[in-house]
Design a protein that fits this description.
The structure holds two protein chains of two kinds. Chain A contains nine helices and 32 strands. Chain A is α/β, with parallel strands linked by helices. Chain A has three domains: about 1-125 and about 260-330, FAD/NAD(P)-binding domain (3-Layer(bba) Sandwich); about 125-255, FAD/NAD(P)-binding domain; about 335-415, Immunoglobulin-like (Sandwich). The longest helix of chain A has 19 residues, at about 305-325. Helices cover about 20% and strands about 30% of the residues of chain B. By secondary structure, chain B is of the alpha+beta class. Chain B has three helices and nine strands. The termini of chain B are far apart. The longest helix of chain B is centred in the N-terminal third of the chain and has 12 residues, at about 35-45. Chain B has a four-stranded antiparallel sheet. A three-stranded antiparallel sheet of chain B has the order 1-2-3, with helices on one face. Chain B folds into two domains: about 1-45, no CATH class; about 50-125, CPE0013-like (CPE0013-like fold). The interface between A and B is medium-sized, with 35 and 31 residues.
Chain lengths: ~425, ~130
Amino acid sequence: MKNIQIDAVVIGGGAAGMSAACELKSRGFSVVVLDRDEEMGGILMQCIHNGFGLIEFNEELSGPEFAQRVHSKASSLDIPMLTGTTVLDLKVEGESRVVHCVSSVQGVIEIRTRAVVLAMGCRERNRGNIRIPGTRPAGIFTAGLAQRLVNIDGYIPGKDVVIIGSGDIGLIMARRLSWVGCKVHAVVEILPYPSGLTRNIVQCLNDFNIPLYLSHQTTNIFGADRVEGIEVTPIENGAVDYDKSFKIDCDTLLLSVGLIPENELSKKAGIEINPATNGPWVDSALMTNIPGVFACGNVLHVHDLVDFVVEESRRAGGFAADWLSGVRPQKELKIKTGANVRYVNPSRVNPSRDNKLYLRSLVVKNDAVLEVKVDNRVVRSIKKQHVQPSEMLSLNLGPKELESAGIDASVEISIL
Amino acid sequence: MSEMICITCPMGCHLHIEQISDTEIAVTGNRCHRGEVYAKEEILSPRRVVTATCPIDMSSDIANSHYFENMYRPRRVPVRTTAAFPKERIPELLSQIYALKVKLPVTAGQVVLHDALGTGIDVIATRTM
């Protein structure tokens, strides 16, 4: 077994992991990035569509281009990046954090470190997660798997496609498959509003006249060896109305029904998970309940833009560097999610410095107001022309809003 | 008066369009100047950035060797247009992209199709491989 001693370990080599590592290294700490794939870059490598980097680089790049820029920066800082390396476990031994990993080139490696940044990203929900009745034929893919097959491996999964769920990857795949000659017959969404970004609805569905069935549930899958079609049933007044069911013929089904932060490793290590985000509970410094273990990017909560992932991860890297410099947690204020707010991340703020918060709305609303209250007194009120669950909101809270707050003050954020 | 959603950035501004004449529209509801530019273009001459993948020239030795120490054997090169492309000509552009055979190695940003369909827009590789 190979042994490595290093200041910090980053688990996951996507945009989040590489960005956190760059920050740690620029602050003078030694850091290694581990990734189980054969190449760095994570899921960005299969996202060949454009639209990445508008905030970070002020231009629209494709996923591989974005990844390459972050990777170049990490390479220029001489950060070691181990690919094909799967982390088996993360343990606490006194002051040390111990990471065991395995790779076909190096065998088993034990890394002893003082800080760990979790950046494992997220995975797709699948048929089992949403329990669609019917047979179990071939031809059912998650949208991201289909994306990898088409964009990296060069295979087309089928000819007549229906997409279940209106998540962004599904919408992007509707356009991608239309452009490679498949016929996308429909997108079926159980909710009354699309869960993907508006621009994807416009560019990926409307451009190709692909019908979007909102408030419709997939109630059956037909086919013995290969998918032959699905039964779709409208939801009216909260109940499925089987009298109005109809069938759509297809040979391929893509599922784009949400993403779950990839926290199997975290849970095994004893990290507590926030049920609202499926990511770890973190303090204002993005540190989990295990001291010295931080989380950022999609493993913490699912973001809609990689630019936000990079911004958050840079902060996580900075907080990990603070930790290595001896900075320890201070008194923090807990944030209460008020009306129409699904979650606020992180859910704690440090009143003595600026805090960047990301939050998600529970509702679709025009002319909304984002309101921050400390002990029932409004300290901040921001007008938002339009809010919806699929578009993450951000907010800065600093000493200006929080200095008057006592130790047990209640901070509440609502959307009105 | 018609409505559309700006797709220039993820903000997705809800634009209100007033047709003044055949070549002139008035735009409100945009949070930045790009919204107005987008609405005018989308109504008068719609364009899209096209992303796709194209085949690799498998006759070269490099395409068949594992010259990337840790990488899968490359199969497709991701590409995109350097600017938004006239929407009605996208199918024509795609068939040209699919007919390409790109020689490896290729660098991100390298032009694989120059002045596509005489539009002045290039198609570039988006990944070094």
